[in-house]
Amino acid sequence: MIKAKKSLGQNFLVDKNILEKIVNSTEIFNKTILEIGPGTGNLTSYILKKNPKKIFVIEKDNELSSNLENKFYNQITIINEDVLKVDETKLLKEKVTVFGNLPYNISTEILSKWIINLKDNFWFECLVLMFQKEVADRIIAEFNTSNYGRLSIICNWKLNIKKICDIGPEAFSPKPKIHSSLLLFHPKQNFIKINDPNNLEKVTRVFFNQRRKMLKKPFNQLFNGDQKVLDKLKIDLNLRPQNLNLDTYYKLTCEYENLRS
Prior knowledge:
Elements: E1 12-13, H1 16-23, E2 32-36, H2 42-49, E3 54-58, H3 62-72, E4 77-79, H4 88-91, E5 96-101, H5 107-116, E6 124-132, H6 133-139, H7 150-155, E7 159-167, E8 172-173, E9 180-187, H8 197-208, H9 216-223, H10 227-233, H11 246-260
Parallel strand pairs: 2-3, 2-5, 3-4, 5-6
Antiparallel strand pairs: 1-8, 6-9, 7-9
């Protein structure tokens, strides 16, 4: 009997209806699949029923990796590594469909790593990922709402995001104390070009460092009060960070890069 490890944020998904909903959220037949954190392989079993071309799984836990090896034998390729240390672009030679019940303690770190390292030729066709509900709410939040912030801006830059469903604690073993949400991410065909994604991180960090304060101080910190930028983007410095829409932050980042070039 395998016990979930708290230190690795393990909660195994056991609800059959939710497992069905996950595998029906996108096309699997004849696709190359990458599953993050397969745990005891419950979702893996459902993916296999859909006849994918091949399945790669990334599982950090040695005991779980051995268990998966015994359970699926040669049906899957197991990568016994920390997902944060894996370069997915070098691991796979073709675009993949990604499924992940991400460890909640590092879920935003994983997603941010993928987005910041994302080149224009996407390494995945889509992402089907589970998050703590409050994190998912921040990812899909719209401007002028309290949940809107850095995560919303960074995640929506190159990706279209849709919520599939919310999931209660009873769907897991052991039961977590929080609710979860399943999100579907697809690459955008058109997005504002930013030379260095780290600049988007910096701009959003400065603006949302004091999210309840007006825009004047962070704007001056980054742009030294440049009136041309204000006029060009039609920004009112009496607003607060959550009042600027997604595109304004992407354009601000472009202006920031222009000033520094």
